[in-house]
Fold:
Amino acid sequence: MGLCLGLGVQPAPVLADSAGLWNVKADHFQCLLQNVDAYLATGLDPVVIFLTACPETDLVKIMASTSQNLAVSDVKTVDDSVEQPAEVITFTRAQLACLARIDPVAAAPVLQVPKDPCQ
Structure:
């Protein structure tokens, strides 16, 4: 598995040292890569990306579609031993431009993506 620029997008291990990495679902990462130009066109810096809403870039629309009625309690248990895939990530415009050069070849459901793809 390899990337341009000598970067690596790797399958995420069960317990990941995520200090410099985002754990991202592969289909979300593919959507992000396919829509880098749309995210750059927002003019924001840093660019906030809601992976579950990809390819939507309008933050107002995203917030409206993800708002919930908090009066209804929905308790969910989370397995703390597993690093959960990110739902929201941020990149500077320069980092997002570098990310556009990545060619993912990993065939895993969750990938580790560098938080600074320009390094």
Summary: The CA atoms of residues 105 and 113 lie 12 Å apart.
